[in-house]
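step 3/5: co-fold with adenosine-5'-triphosphate
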Amino acid sequence: MTDEGFALRDVVVRRGGRAVLDGIDADIPADGITVLWGPSGAGKTTLLRLLDRLDVPESGTVSYRGTPLDELDVLALRRRVGMVFQRATPFAGTVRDNLAVAAPDADGEAVRRVLGRVSLDADLLDRGADTLSGGELQPMCLARTLITEPEALLLDEPTSALDEGPRRAFERSVLELARDGLTVVWVGHDEEQVRRVGDRVLHVGEGRVTT
Ligand SMILES: Nc1ncnc2c1ncn2[C@@H]1O[C@H](COP(=O)(O)OP(=O)(O)OP(=O)(O)O)[C@@H](O)[C@H]1O
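step 4/5: write tokens
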């Protein structure tokens, strides 16, 4: 029996008059990497955003570890459940500044450790985030999420803008994080990547979610 991560019950979300999620029931266990997979426009991002309360469903319930999200303080939830978006979103300043925005009290050891977890060199700390390559930016965003020590990580097609080398490095980082106990929900549509990273796949399409 796996521990409960997220549970959705009879969840409805409408966009532009259409039910993108039409009364879905889905369970996302706490262990391993769950991939949300499906064609473009199927509602994967919509579903992912519900898990961090960036959106709320029109009806139905989304729970995390047994508690409905609307009973949790939203900022506390987002400390426990971190998110990395499709496009890297660096803040102004250095890499160190970016990490400090997320965790002002993190000490040097914690900062170096988190960079190590995403395979970034500590030499980058004093570089302006705007000088990083595409392949360095997304890992930095992952590090910025990890430094708050979340229990769960939501990834919205995080490698779609990355070349093959950085893409594989990002995958390895997340596989290791999941092995160390982080709950991961990964939106993807690259079938080979889904096979490489997914412990299980939820298919999203036509308003439904199926295993
Ligand atoms: N704010 C919005 N207003 C109107 N329609 C929206 C809005 N957000 C999403 N949609 C529509 O809802 C549907 C689901 O979008 P969503 O981004 O969740 O799909 P997706 O499966 O993540 O797609 P992709 O793989 O292209 O990112 C799409 O048809 C999209 O056009």
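step 5/5: annotate
The mean pLDDT is 94.
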